[in-house]
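Reopening this one. Same input as before:
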Amino acid sequence: MAAAAVSGLVTVLESYRGRDRVIRTLCYSCQLLGGVMSNKSKTEHNWGKSLLIVSSQLSHCRTVLRLFDDLAMLAYSVKYGFGKKEKDSLIRWISIFSNISDQLYYPCEHIAWAADSGVIHAKSEMWWMASTALWGISLILGIVKSLRNLMMLRRYKGKNSKEEPPKSRGEIKSQIRSEVLCIISCLSDLFNAIHWMPSGFLWGGSSPTWLVGLMGTISSLIGIYQTTEVGSAGGV
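Same output, byte for byte:
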């Protein structure tokens, strides 16, 4: 079993998305543990500080890697287009606006990174705020989309459709579970997105480090679970 676990981990790390999910989980886990340990004794404080440094470096690593995500996102957006194949009009428009938010997120973050790195002369705060706001909008749209999908699944109740084969109870339960997990994940990330907004906007800048780490760890673990579930079901 140990060999199978190592082999599975290697397979995950060999893919870009899999590696990103692992780095993200480690990043927030270090932030969670570092935040907790920083509130304890001086000896543990050193370990806590070290974990927070590791978390910061992993976060910076992900920011740099995202410099190459624009084309992949653009290809996805172009392929989806106006979602003509989507059966529900609300889902279609939510997806379109979500794709726009995600597409605009990347250049805003790139400019903020370039400003912080000294590549360009600009104030990064405005661009970080813009990228965080776009991320928050995308998360809210994701929550609404999942809620809409849940409503449609509950209405379905095994009714047959001429366009698609009837779904079993197991399939419906699996899809409902997936949408519920998506909502929890988006809510966890949205909590952090608001925290990273300027002070004075809801709870912007007021959350303790360990709580930010906890919210990020929850969403990251859900992401890994969903990836594993799709993989075991024969998905990509």
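So the earlier flakiness isn't reproducible anymore. For the record, Residues 232-236 have pLDDT under 50 and may be disordered.
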